[in-house]
Amino acid sequence: MASYCETKGRTKRFNQGRLRATTSAKDRYLSLCARKNRTATLAELTSFLAASSGRLESRINMRHKLHVRDLYARRSAISVALILRYQWESLQSELQHVQWTRDPWMAALLTEESRFSLESDSRRIFIWRESGTRFHP
Fold first, then answer.
1. Beta bridge partners of 72
2. Tell me: the pLDDT tens digits for 113-131?
3. Mind listing the pLDDT tens digit for each residue in 76-93?
4. What is the pTM of this model?
5. Count of CB atoms within 10 A of residue 27's CB?
6. Chain centre distance of CA 115
């Protein structure tokens, strides 16, 4: 590096790159909000961060911060809807076996098909999940 007299007081400093838009504490807060509110949209997560820090960040930046922490927007797992005929048959079977005592029930093998949904079946609901946790709650 040149001396002060040669450069007239101007020194070139090593460039660290672009300044960070959020601090590491804000990044941790964003990932905690995404894990607590798994059905929150990116716009809602951005507004949570803006409410806490007083500064609005871009959605692209927020998405990148979540991807760095292994959080990705996934569609919610949608199960096959039970058809009306199956529901009717299941109800008839239950009504037929109402009077059973404990012994016949112990010998019977019952299966139950349950339908799980967080909001609606519009396939527009995303859940923030870590990679590899597809069907975990």
1. 129
2. 444 445 555 555 566 666 6
3. 555 555 566 777 787 888
4. 0.43
5. 19
6. 20
